[in-house]
Amino acid sequence: MEKEVPTDVYAERLKNMEKIRMWHTELRATRTINALKEHGFEALYVADRHQARAEILKRIPASASIGVGGSMTIREIGVLEALEAQGNIIYNHWKPGLSQEEILKIRKAHLTSDIFLTSTNALTIEGELVSTDGIGNRICAMTFGPQKVMVAAGINKLVPD
Prior knowledge:
The chain is α/β, with parallel strands linked by helices. The protein is built from 6 helices and 7 strands; from the N terminus they run H-H-E-H-H-E-H-E-E-E-H-E-E. It is elongated, with a radius of gyration of 19 Å.
């Protein structure tokens, strides 16, 4: 017969495992940030979506036009709603009810926006962005056109290579 382990022992083990997981996450993120900086990117690590939203918003003036790639990450952290409230012009091709012609026009506007917001499919710990794109508008805007590009990537996007 197995000896029963008290619940508080399990709770303590879980707490310790969570501390180790957080330490490992921060270690991987720091290594990635350093690699991105070595490649010429301005990069930073934040602990959660609230901090990510705040850091993005403090870098975007109300006068800036914003292109938005097909990024769930950008949408999930609540940046678009805050930018709309701030009065920014937002080129968002995912708005409901748009015709194919309107979507194409918005995708082209991404290239001339002041700031382009997107994510990436994967981010290597060596500081390389890995992006695929069905039409090409996101990758084009990431590499050419907008004055500034901001890429938000959750820890779930970090890969070894």
